């Protein structure tokens, strides 16, 4: 059972934080304190520090809940993800932190994307439970805008290589293709392909196997549509010539 929290005024809380900076082991002496102004804990503060993994592990070992929230709903994992602290994120996840626990609509993955930390985004995309593993058009556009270098890692989740043959062929399992393709249920301008085409990283992203598959599918669809239109026009042309000629022939 978690011990009762003590609420410290801003100055006293800051003094304690300063002391921990000098003597990290002192965090173990007062683990269950919160800043009175916003409810943040020592775990919130140190989660964003560099080289703070051991302090974080000490606080967790004593019993500070990994998913503890401040008054706004912010968690230590959100702080660590936003600040790019990989080791702290790992320590929190190992201690049972909820990988996709959100503050409002902001999950740890969203927090990393928002600050453009592509390495952290890639890391979180690979971690179990950090996102739904389903394609989300709004998130895809957000990722393209803030962390385009991590887009191919996101697309990898929908194109899983199952095995390789001795001839060099790959068996790939694709998922959510209809949603990613988009049309006709999604306006063309909002499809994944259209969004990528407007990105500064378009060349890199369009070389991904999933985007190449979408490109081929759209090209085949376009070719079929063009063939149907050309056939209809040709048929109309022949009919417009043939019918009056036959009808106008007295024999």
From TrEMBL:
Which Gene Ontology molecular-function terms are recorded? ubiquitin-protein transferase activity
Q: Which SMART domains match?
A: ANK
Name the keywords, alphabetized.
ANK repeat, Repeat
Pfam families associated with the record: Ank_2 (PF12796)
> What SUPFAM superfamilies would the database entry show?
Ankyrin repeat
Official protein name in the record: Uncharacterized protein
Q: Which InterPro entries match?
A: Ankyrin_rpt, Ankyrin_rpt-contain_sf
Organism expressing this protein natively: Phytophthora palmivora
A GO term (biological process) for this protein?
A: protein K6-linked ubiquitination
**Which domain of life does the UniProt lineage start with?**
Eukaryota
Q: Does the keyword Repeat apply?
A: yes
Q: State the ANK repeat positions.
A: 38-71, 72-104
